[in-house]
Amino acid sequence: MLQVLLDACVTTPLILYDHVMQSYVLDGDTESLIRDVHVIIDIIFVWTVWNKADDDVWLLGFKAIEFLIRKAHHQRDFNISVLLTAGAVEKLFNICLVRIFMMPLCIVFIMPSCMAFK
To answer: Which of 78, 80, 87 is nearest to 42 (CA)?
Structure first.
């Protein structure tokens, strides 16, 4: 489900199914652009749904956003600008704060993605 939602808001798929490993992986070489930031915000807002899934799903969502703003991404500035303009970053951090208060160990998932803004 996360794969379908992310595919709807970016120009090329971020999450791929690896038939050999029989699991979902992120396309580490993606040059995808955010085309519908509102879908990303909606994905972030339904964090309680992802919270009920395996921790891998929650982590995959954060990693997908991280891949869109990683240093090696040629359109990094554009993707960051889109996220900042839509207020996605503040909303994401507020949700992270709620999760930290609920489950202190979740900070382990959050910190690598936060470092991508440096």
So the answer is: 87
**Contact by Cβ (8 Å): 63, 41:** no
Token couple for 91: 């909303």
Segment 98-110, tens digit of pLDDT: 777 766 555 455 4
Q: Distances from the Cα of 104 to the Cαs of 8, 53, 59, 107, in angstroms?
A: 32, 17, 15, 6
Q: pTM of the predicted model, to two decimals?
A: 0.74
The DSSP line for the chain is -HHHHHHHHBSS-SEEEETTTTEEEE-TT----BS-HHHHHHHHHTHHHHHHS-HHHHHHHHHHHHHHT-TT-TTHHHHHHHHHHTTHHHHHHHHHHHHHHH-GGGHHHHHHHHGGG-
